[in-house]
Specification:
The chain is mostly helical. It contains 14 helices and 2 strands, in the order ααααααααβααβαααα. The chain has helices spanning 2-28, 34-47, 52-59, 66-73, 82-89, 92-104, 106-116, 120-131, 142-151, 156-171, 195-201, 217-230, 246-252, 256-270, and strands spanning 140-141, 181-182.
Length: 273
């Protein structure tokens, strides 16, 4: 009997923690709780150094986005083989277009390779695979999507950090909240940078005073090269599987199928395969 009495406080504490977890799960999966969470997050953003003007401009009218959650829940396991995926993605259009873009931006690519060590075919392959060279960047409101995912139960810490970095992009004048649109998970621009990568690697390569990965091709290309350099790109080394720079390409996308397709498309654009 004494043992049962000793256990009562522990059982009570366990029940209380379980009830708290259930309450949190209910709130973070219920859109009705989003406005209160957003008000709380605004204080967190201010504590992280985001100005009140930026908070008001970026978060003033943000609402919960059910479509973002639908995409997040609807992700399917990638099942295509390398042969299937690369045959579809490393196609004649992207090879031809990639070659023409290298000629068109020859001076820009020359400066980029001199500064970052990354050759044009690799950058263009990524550009083509991510958005068809800027043609399909996504239509989701980035801040709304990130705020929704930051509130959601599944990965709140990751997306709260990305949301704060999106506000930093606005605060430093690179983009306005209304122009910040992209994929449902918060990727921005012609090579689909998450806000954290935008903050770390985006460069003003056209001298406009802003790092614009949506409209400025020089900024897009140089920022992509800086990203690869930041993960250890070795100038002059190869990028195919088994070569020094393939591990860096895998830092762009960890999927073996996708990273091998980047390397293959780069080879085809370069004319080596």
């Amino acid at each position: 009997m004494r043992l049962f009495k000793r256990l009562l406080p522990i059982v009570g504490l366990t029940f209380s923690l379980a009830a708290g977890s259930t309450a949190y799960a209910a709130s973070c999966s219920d859109p009705a709780g989003f406005p209160a969470w957003l008000e709380s997050y605004k204080s967190e953003a201010a504590a992280a150094g985001i100005s009140q003007g930026t908070i008001d401009a970026a978060l003033g009218n943000v609402t919960y986005d059910r479509e973002t959650i639908s995409h997040d829940r609807g992700q399917k396991v990638f099942k295509q083989s390398f042969e299937q995926f690369s045959a579809r993605m490393a196609n004649a259009y992207r090879i031809s277009k990639g070659k023409s873009l290298i000629k068109r931006y020859a001076d820009v690519f020359s400066r980029i390779e001199s500064q970052y060590g990354v050759p044009a075919p690799v950058i263009v392959a990524i550009w083509g695979l991510e958005t068809d060279f800027g043609a399909f960047m996504g239509k989701f409101e980035t801040i709304r999507s990130l705020a929704t995912l930051a509130y959601d139960c599944r990965r709140p810490d990751k997306f709260r950090a990305e949301l704060t970095d999106a506000l930093r992009i606005v605060q430093r004048g690179d983009m306005s909240p209304s122009s910040m649109r992209g994929a449902w998970a918060g990727e921005i621009g012609q090579t689909q940078f998450m806000p954290s990568s935008y903050i770390k690697y985006a460069v003003d390569f056209d001298g406009s005073g802003r790092r614009d990965l949506v409209h400025s091709v020089p900024d897009v290309l140089a920022s992509t090269a800086k990203y690869l350099q930041g993960y250890g790109w070795q100038a002059g080394a190869g990028w195919d599987p088994g070569e020094a720079n393939f591990a860096v390409i895998q830092q762009w996308n960890a999927s073996a199928v996708y990273s091998r397709t980047i390397a293959l498309l780069a080879d085809k654009i370069a004319g080596t395969k």
